[in-house]
Design goal:
The protein has 494 residues and is mainly beta. Among the domains are: 164-174 and 187-197 and 228-425, no CATH class; 430-493, Immunoglobulins (Immunoglobulin-like, Sandwich), CATH 2.60.40.10. Strands 2, 3, 6, 9, 12, 15, 18, 19, 22, 25, 28, 31, 34 and 37 form a 14-stranded parallel sheet that branches. Strands 4-7-10-13-16-20-23-26-29-32-35-38 form a 12-stranded parallel sheet, with no helix packed on it. The chain has a 9-stranded parallel sheet with strand order 5-8-11-14-17-21-24-27-30. Strand 45 (473-479) and strand 46 (485-493) form a beta hairpin. It is globular, with a radius of gyration of 23 Å. The chain starts with a strand and ends with a strand.
Length: 494
């Protein structure tokens, strides 16, 4: 089998105000406000190892472009600490800026870790450790924030939320933003706080591949996405996260790992040892609608694993609820199928002991493997394994491919994304298309294969089995978050 890649469109050429960018290196004691103010689009400010005291570091009015990001980073391989000294100041304030990256920084001992205010977009916070703040790890209070990425960050010991995105009055939407691959723990007090909440009408946000534990107060949730009021293309997405010990102080049997009122996709998540797994209710007069809660695993929750209240246009398929219950809506509004619940876990999981390699992974021949409803299921599972491995999808967050868990073992720390080495069965006459996409500017693209969207972000994306004839052509397209699209045409020769 051979592939020909035929360029169908060339990327745009960007011209900036200067022909080159600069890298400036500073040491502890430097005036960071002045250093940031002097940066031009495309410049990098490198902070050498050590502690920069005082907090209240302001980044304001810095607006770059898709190929001219402002980068403020700790020196590679070194420990760089921005320390507020316990004062009631934010560690970093970011105002009215765009195309700004914060990388490799430790932020501690202030009010909020990063406070974003006034309209901002294309903000990247990567590989940062934000901890021991009295308020929020990443607090977005702008009237609009879009295309923000918080990735590979540890956010811990926050007095309120790990992340609070959106203004409480509903007039500051955060949209097209993403929390991914991060480790959020020990956030919230006895009654308030969240791991992350995205306030209404925030839309088209993605929360994926994160680890949450010991987060939220008794009257809140681990992950909360409210509603958008928009069509399905703008749903918030919560997928492939693991959550336990919600609420933080274990004093409520009704605090859910995941909560949403409407307009959300909730799939391939694992919630255990919490008050509830997933819960929904009417909020601020907004009806329960357009919820897609599929292939999640809820285990050992104090009350319901899956709580569905009366709504409209909602669905819940192939959820595994063990040692907790399912509450079906009394007034309908949900399409359901393939959901399983039982107090008996004999032969269901390879292990129910936290830390074991087989913890909550399906046992071969048990209730979960090949026992789902084929009407609705995600394209992959918690590990990124393509569904279904056999003809019928499995129940719960994992797809069983034989043997043990081929991916990351649930535990404290970051979730490791282990490539799946066992391909799903492909029948004669069918092929799978794998596309690897990267962007040197760090912009996470959307990926389409022959008009069907398969992913968001850099990496390798594999389609389900597709049927092509000899010599047929198809297109692979990528669009970055600025709307710049590129495509190639591929011809298949069998």
């Amino acid at each position: 089998m051979r592939f020909w890649l035929i360029p169908a469109m060339l990327g745009a050429i960007f011209c900036g105000s200067r022909a080159f960018s600069q890298t400036v290196t500073v040491n502890p004691g430097a005036d960071l406000d002045a250093e940031a103010a002097a940066l031009n689009p495309g410049d990098t400010l490198v902070l050498s190892a050590g502690t920069y005291s005082g907090g209240d570091f302001d980044i304001s009015g810095k607006n770059g472009g898709a190929s001219q990001w402002f980068t403020i980073k700790g020196a590679d391989g070194e420990t760089v600490v921005l320390d507020g000294g316990g004062a009631a100041v934010n560690i970093v304030n970011l105002y009215n800026s765009s195309y700004v990256k914060l990388q490799n920084l430790e932020l501690k001992s202030g009010d909020d870790g990063v406070k974003i205010n006034t309209n901002s977009h294309h903000i990247s916070i990567e590989n940062c450790y934000i901890h021991d703040v009295t308020g929020v790890g990443v607090n977005v209070q702008a009237y609009e924030t879009s295309y923000m990425e918080v990735t590979d960050c540890e956010i811990a010991y926050c007095g309120s939320c790990g992340c609070y995105w959106g203004r409480s009055g509903g007039d500051g939407p955060v949209h097209h933003s993403r929390l991914a691959g991060s480790y959020v723990h020990h956030c919230g007090d006895s009654t308030t706080g969240y791991g992350i909440q995205i306030k209404m009408p925030g839309y088209a946000n993605v929360i994926e591949d994160n680890v949450f534990h010991h987060v939220a107060g008794s009257s809140r949730a681990g992950i909360a996405v409210y509603f958008t009021g928009l069509d399905d293309s703008c749903d918030n997405v919560v997928r492939r996260n693991v959550i336990w010990n919600v609420p933080r102080y274990d004093n409520s049997s009704t605090t859910p790992g995941i909560w949403s009122c409407a307009d959300a996709v909730v799939e391939n998540n694992i919630v255990f040892d919490s008050g509830m797994g997933f819960h929904t209710n009417v909020y601020d007069g907004h009806a329960i609608e357009d919820l897609k809660v599929n292939n999640n695993t809820f285990f050992r929750c104090d009350s319901e694993g899956l709580y569905m209240a009366t709504g409209s246009g909602c669905e819940a398929y192939n959820n595994a609820c063990y040692r907790c219950e399912i509450h079906y809506p009394t007034g309908g509004g949900w399409a359901t199928g393939g959901n399983l619940t039982s107090e008996d876990t004999t032969g269901v999981f390879q292990s129910t002991n936290f830390g074991d390699a087989g913890f909550l992974f399906p046992a071969g021949g048990g209730d979960l493997a090949d026992n789902g409803d084929s009407a609705v299921f995600p394209a992959d599972d918690f590990n990124g394994t393509v569904r279904p491995y056999n003809a019928v999808p499995d129940v719960g967050a994992y797809e069983y491919t034989g043997g043990g868990n081929p991916g990351w073992t649930i535990g404290n720390g970051f979730k490791s994304l282990v490539p799946e080495s066992i391909p799903p069965a492909v029948a004669a006459g069918e092929v799978q298309i794998s596309v690897t996409v990267s962007d040197p500017g760090g912009v996470a693209p959307h990926i389409w294969i022959d008009g069907v969207e398969y992913g968001y972000g850099g990496g390798t994306f594999t389609s389900p089995a597709l049927v092509f004839t000899d010599g047929q052509e198809f297109t692979v397209e990528a669009e970055d978050t600025s709307g710049n699209r590129s495509a190639v045409t591929v011809r298949l020769d069998i």
